[in-house]
Amino acid sequence: MQLLGHLATIVIDGVSYAAWLFIISVGLTLVFGVLRILNIAHGGMYAVGAYLAAYAIGAAAANGFGAGAQLLFAATLAVACGAGLGILIEWTVLRRLYRYPEVLVLFATYAVFLIFEDATKLLWGGQSRYANAPRDALGQIRLGELIYPVYDLAMVLVAILLAVAVSLTLSSTRIGRCVTAVVFDREMSASMGINVNRIMTGTFLVGAALGTLAGALTAPKIAISSGIGVDVIVLAFAVTVIGGLGSIGGAMAGAVIVGMARAVTAHLFPQIELFAVYAAMAVVLAVRPQGLFARPEARKI
Amino acid sequence: MTLRKPDTTIVVLLLLAIGASIGAWWIPGWIRFISQMAISAALASLGAMVLLRAGLLSFGQGLFYFAGAYTAALSYKYLGLNEAVLLILFSIAISGGVAAAIGFFISNYRGIFFAMLTLAISMLVYGIAVKVSLFGGSDGLNIGLISILGFRYRGPDLQLAMFLICIWTAGLMAMVAHLFLRSRLGKVIEAIEDNEVRLEYLGTSVRSSIHAAYVLAGALGGAGGVLAALSARHVDPGFAYWTTAGDFVFIVILSGQASVLSPFFGAFALEVLRTFAAANFPDAWQMVLGTIMLLIVLFVPKGLGHIFIALGARWKARGRTVVPAAMNEETARP
After folding, report:
1. Which end of chain B has fewer CB within 10 Å, C or N?
2. How many contacts (CB atoms, under 8 Å) link A and B?
């Protein structure tokens, strides 16, 4: 019975962590799929989203709104600002670099990330911020012997909704099918009359907004301070790489694998918890260098 | 007997090292110290540059900077090794060894995979170093009195001797890197960026070439790390943090990758920039870095060092027909 309880704890922890991982990496993998860019600035968007949420939640709480309104306000503000920043970056930086080598684009998104790091520090100061009001207000729930924050379980629901929404958009709407076509073959899509540039701008906008949304949703769970973006970019990369860069289903699988690996080690071998994520990534990459769900690419001779 | 034309880069390196050694007596101590830190960073960046020649962007040079610095600090603390030259040689060897070990794994990856895996490994090491008490935790370790070639200098003499050691270690390592880049293997590295499959068909192992370049990059990073450790007499886990590696990446972008001299130019430029930014924008250092990096990537993608090379080429070509700029753009990679 005790063992079973332990197992349940690990599974619930793993699922909740996996949900968070999926939320932080879905924007990254979407942008990679369409633009073929690893957007290091995604970590910056996450940090901006977290700070915006802290501001929004604080402001809403001061005006006497409840937890639901606080979260809604935070998410709306984060998504709006994320979309705006996304358009700005795409227009000023990325659009000029699409024909350049991968390394140069990586430099550029890294530079944008550095700018974001300090911009958040300048705007919101160096000290940690907290936005835990909504998470506290939602309280805790008893699952058998386990007491768990409702907010963390709600994140699982949000992650599933997000996954369904993104998959449905990609598979069943006109724009989504255009996006899928661009992912598959950019030149062919252009010749079939798809406005590839507009699809790319739009995808980057959505990816950026998903980045800030991830930050906003995480804000109530953490101490928001400078430097939270780096860990996220490494984790999100690990997740997307395991699943195969650019595949939504892959991001889900990657999130579950990393989440479970981390939960198992955190409970059974806490001293090697730090290694779990990287070990999972190393094992998957050693077996399938392109990730679990990626299409093999044709070699150019 | 005909005398072979001497290699310009090696001559320039020798002249710089000799000039700095003679000038050392007149250079104020604080400039010497800043130069030592710049030289250390330049060596690590040189490693990043070697990899970039193969089209590989490493966010993990900080790892070898860390390895070099901590090898020195740990050998000093636990092995009682206090001879600077031995510490330098030992640290370079260990960092090269670490690179050789990681290289078996990392040489399979290209592009963003390479960049992110190098970042992940160094962040992992940072995470361990902060926690492990053997490494002094987040406070790091101090290096006490050291002897240089058996002499136990004190005060200003020690600083001067340390400066000379830095200059000559850096000069020698830069020459090694130059000889590597000039060798057959160095040319193979450059060809990797153009087309790997073609190289494989020509009978070259791309993987082992990258492995070799990675070991050299590790040794260079370790050399930079040990010089920084001996100069500052202190090491901390920040050496492996991503911002350290980010500085090296910045140096390479700033200076371009035309010659082994480029990172030295870039490192000094970064030091000047840091002084300027610390005075004017104390809280926005990364932002200044990022903005300049973005401007360079957008407008001078070959790095500022390329401007000198373009000027030099124009000077050499004066009187002759000038190659149209458009043709240059096509043949040269950014």
Report:
1. N
2. 114
